[in-house]
Specification:
Distance between the termini: 31 Å
Strand content: 5-15%
Number of domains: 2
CATH architecture of the largest domain: 3-Layer(aba) Sandwich
Largest sheet: 5 strands, parallel
Structural class: alpha/beta
């Protein structure tokens, strides 16, 4: 893999030339998506879902960037939700799903074959239906045929960048059913936070004060191990790794505390850890970035941080793991202990650590801010590596081969 070029992130003109598909502009549309999707969902008649009462379960079917909307819904509803919220990725609907359940089919294009297959099966079983996706699509046609409620979504470009346009209809459906407390004020405050992150991570902002550019350069060459400290942050960690894959064409390993302390933590002692591919202490042992956490909140940095940032990475020892901890404010006391000790173990073994804290109070605000920074990081990493962040050539070739 080519080494990251910090100069590629120096100015907005260079960045724009390296991003011909406009992925950064798509990422920056998150706040507008929330506002537009709220209007569209209300206009589609989402309140009609309440007529049949609370379902036994909510099942979201989707793939890729569309499926993550179901995970976000589950995270916002939280562990106290009175009904299960399950995301199905694949061709088959679980055998227990029936007429008492609400099946939400989500497809940005409206033509995802797995999603259409599950939606067809849900209709055959008589399940309650809500379809969310592209207008004038096979999914829209199926909605008309089955008399399902349909919410049209305008794609901003790539499905993975249309996350909030796809997610808001699900949140409002759950609100209508009394399963999620997401008032309009929270939707607006979340949009405002996303606008603030977009300002901090704007292309014209220099790398040493732009948290996304800085984290991208720090990750380059390392294998990111991205952990969340709660189910909500775990969903953001999964999203982070998916965005590493699709935007930066880069690997990533995701996990959630406390489970990772029963398996992934052992990798610190392996080939990619400090005791394997490089000597302990050979790579910067600790960083804290993003949000309002640690020594770098996008507005300042101490001299040690700056010395580390401007070092010549060509002379670095062999690359290895880097631990990225996504920190939710809602953290179990024992998980907090595990997180703190896990970070100590990583640093003791020469594994670099980056910590990113959620912002806001409401679960939607917290997960949105974690996801937003990760989206920017992965696009900037692609640009720094000389990779076009928009195309997903391997996915298109795979689809062509199986067609």
């Amino acid at each position: 893999m080519n080494a990251a070029d910090p100069a590629a992130l120096d100015d907005a003109t260079t960045i724009e030339a390296a991003d011909p598909g406009g992925m950064l502009r798509q990422v920056a549309s998150a706040a507008a998506q929330i506002r537009e999707a709220r209007r569209t969902t209300v206009e589609a008649g989402i309140e009609s879902l309440a007529g049949d009462g609370r379902p036994r379960a909510i099942v979201i079917t989707g793939m890729g960037g569309s499926a993550i909307s179901g995970d976000v819904l589950a995270a916002v509803c939280g562990p106290g939700c009175p009904v299960p919220v399950v995301t199905v990725r694949g061709y088959r609907l679980p055998g227990w799903v029936g007429a008492a359940d609400l099946v939400i089919a989500v497809s940005c294009s409206g033509g995802t074959e797995e999603t259409l297959a599950v939606a067809t099966e849900a209709a055959r079983r008589g399940a309650r239906l809500l379809f969310v996706g592209g207008a004038d699509s096979p999914l829209a046609a199926m909605a008309a045929q089955t008399r399902a409620l349909f919410v049209p979504v305008r794609s901003v470009g790539q499905p993975r960048a249309t996350l909030w346009g796809l997610t808001v209809p699900l949140l409002l459906a759950a609100r209508t059913l009394g399963l999620a407390d997401v008032p309009d004020e929270t939707l607006e405050s979340t949009a405002t936070l996303l606008e603030d992150i977009s300002h901090r991570c704007r292309p014209a902002s220099e790398a040493f004060v732009n948290p996304a550019k800085r984290i991208a350069l720090e990750l380059s060459g390392d294998v990111p191990m991205v952990w969340g400290n709660s189910p909500l942050a775990g969903t953001a960690a999964y999203r982070f790794c998916c965005q590493l894959n699709e935007n930066a064409k880069y690997p990533g390993v995701y996990g959630e505390l406390p489970e990772v302390d029963h398996n992934q933590v052992v990798a610190f002692d392996g080939y990619f850890g400090g005791s394997g591919g490089r000597p302990p202490g050979g790579h910067s042992g600790g960083r804290s970035s993003g949000g309002q956490s640690g020594s770098s909140d996008g507005g300042s940095a101490d001299s040690d941080d700056l010395d580390d940032f401007f070092r010549d990475r060509v002379d670095d020892p062999d690359h290895g793991l880097q631990l990225v901890v996504l920190r939710d404010l809602d953290e179990h006391p024992q998980v907090r202990k595990r997180r703190e000790v896990s970070v100590e173990l990583a640093r003791d073994r020469g594994v670099a650590v980056t910590e990113i804290a959620a912002e806001g109070e409401h679960p939607l605000e917290r997960i949105a801010t974690l996801i937003a920074l990760g989206d920017y990081v992965t696009v900037y990493l692609a640009i720094a590596l000389g990779v076009d962040p928009t195309p997903v050539t391997a996915i298109q070739e795979l689809k062509a081969r199986i067609a």
